[in-house]
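Exercise 7. Predict the structure of FtsZ-binding cell division protein ZapB from Granulicella aggregans.
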Amino acid sequence: MSDSGISFDEFQALEQKVLRAVEIVKREREARAAAEAEVVTLRAQLAAQSQQTESQVTTLNATLTQEREAIRQRIEGMLSQMDELL
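Solution. The predicted structure, encoded as tokens:
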């Protein structure tokens, strides 16, 4: 080349660096898109799990309330029987 500033080898090296930079950016964009898709999936799974847990807690509370009521009635019955003995 003439005295224009850079040689052919320098230009080739620069071209290779640009191509590598483009590939890195492309891979990073693909990785970001994959990570964003995974976030969406995980948020949906978390919402479903949260809903399932809430349902289980509601069911457990209802069961415990029924059991408490049954025990209360049994105790009242026993107290009534004890009152009859006195």
